[in-house]
Amino acid sequence: MDERSALIEPHIPSLRRYARGLLRDASSGDDLLQDCLERALRNWSARRPEGDLRAWLFAIMHNLFVSGARLRGRRGPTASLGDLPEEPPIRPTQEDRMLHDSVLDQLQKLSPEHRAVLLLIGVEELSYRQAAEALGVPVGTVMSRLSRAREHFRQALRDPPPLRLRTVK
């Protein structure tokens, strides 16, 4: 393993979580991760050695996501058939599953900008400065987007939508 790979490897799990959180699809998230890693290795010489590697990697992923979103918008939505859900180590209860689905639904209702900030700071634990660097926006913008995203979740928890049961045949 070369030096570049050794430096990047510890960041792969958090990059994978971020990609899957952005796309809400394991296969598409893994594709985004692979594209990100390829671009990082290909453009390694453009990286500032004194810069934050983690923020640089997340910036690459974010830019690839935004570019891909533009393409998806022009092509329309796609569906991945045949993907099997990953099994968690402990089987969730029905309430756990409903809460999980509700959180994912609320996450998808956020704009891509608000979702990215919430995932970077809330899930990946980047600092405001690192998230701002990754997204290419000022720290104040990160703070306001995070505040709006958190308020969206607070409101959703205060006023949850009515549960819709479906008939199983």
TrEMBL record:
Region feature (Disordered): 76-95
Pfam families: PhyR_sigma2, Sigma70_r4_2
Residues covered by the PhyR sigma2 domain: 8-62
Keywords of the record: Sigma factor, Transcription, Transcription regulation
Domain of life: Bacteria
Residues that span the membrane, as ranges: none
One BP term from GO: DNA-templated transcription initiation
InterPro entries registered for this protein in UniProt: PhyR_sigma2 (IPR053866), RNA_pol_sigma-70-like (IPR039425), RNA_pol_sigma-70_dom (IPR014284), RNA_pol_sigma70_r4_t2 (IPR013249), RNA_pol_sigma_r2 (IPR013325), RNA_pol_sigma_r3/r4-like (IPR013324), WH-like_DNA-bd_sf (IPR036388)
Domain RNA polymerase sigma factor 70 region 4 type: 101-152
Molecular function as annotated in GO: DNA binding; sigma factor activity
Similarity section: Belongs to the sigma-70 factor family. ECF subfamily.
Protein name, as recorded: RNA polymerase subunit sigma-24
